[in-house]
Amino acid sequence: MSNNYLIKILKNGAPDPALLEAVIGIARGAGRVISEVYETEFTVSAKSDASPVTLADERAEAMIVAALTALTPGLPVVAEESVAAGRIPTIDAARGAFWLVDPLDGTREFVSRNGEFTVNIALIQVGEPVLGVVLAPALDALYAGAKELGAFKEQSGRRHSIVCRNAPAEGLAVVESRSHGDGAALDAWLQRLSRPIASRVKAGSSLKLCVLAEGGADLYPRLGRTMEWDIAAGHAILTAAGGRVSRLDNDQALRYGKPGFENPGFVAQGL
Length: 271
Prior knowledge:
Blueprint: H1 3-11, H2 17-38, E1 44-46, E2 52-54, H3 55-71, E3 77-79, H4 80-84, E4 97-105, H5 107-112, E5 118-125, E6 128-136, E7 141-146, E8 150-155, E9 158-162, E10 172-177, H6 183-191, E11 197-203, H7 207-213, E12 219-222, E13 226-227, H8 228-240, E14 244-247, E15 262-263, E16 266-269
Parallel strand pairs: 3-4, 10-11
Antiparallel strand pairs: 1-2, 4-5, 5-6, 6-7, 7-8, 8-9, 12-16, 13-15, 14-16
C-alpha cells in the first residue's frame, strides 16, 4: 500500500476497519514477545538520555516495524528505539502519513513489574493521529480507535465501545503520571482551574489517556517532557471516544511530526 493510496482512503472517508484490525493483530504479536521477556530475569540498560531499555523493547520494536512495513509498504515507521539509534525515516508531516510506534511504553513500569506498560501503535495523517492501538499485555486490556470509527476496549475476549464521560458536578477526576509526576507545578496549574478537583489518581504509560477515553477520569495535564510516540496512539483513541488533546501554550490541537518528535506541555480531556 503506497503512501499516496493510504492518504486517499483516509481523505475520502474513515480509516478502513480492516486496517485497524490488522494493527490490533500486530500489537498482540508484540505483546506476546514482551510477555516472554517479562517472565524472565531480564536485564536493564540505559540509553543516552538515561531512560531504561530492555530486550523486550528491542524485540517488540523489530517485530512491529517489520509487520507495519509489510502491511503498508513505503509508509515510514517512526519508532522509539530506532530513533534513539539514529535511524530516523524521512517523513512529510505537512502532507503525508506515517506510523508512530512505542514498542514498550512505560519501561519503568515494566521493570517494577506493576503491569502498567503498553504497546503503542498510531497512524498519523497530516499531523493528526487518526488510528491508534494501545495494548497492556500484563493487564489483558486492549484499547483501539480510529477517526469516524469510534473507540473500544477489549478484555477477557469481550469487546465493547467506550466514550468519554461528562465531568460530574462534584468535580473533576484528574489522572497523572505514576513515574513522571509534575509535582508542585501540576499542583499550581490545577489550583488555577475554575472547576473543583474531586480526585487524583496515578497511572502508568499511555493508559492515562485510555482512562479518559473509557470515562474513568476527566483530565490529564502533562507539563513535563514527553515524546510523540508516548501519546499518539492514546490520543487517537481518546479523540475517537469524544475527547481531545491540546497544547498548554495556545490551546490548539496537539500535532505530530514535529522536529525531534518532542511534545510541548499539553492537557488531555474528555467531554
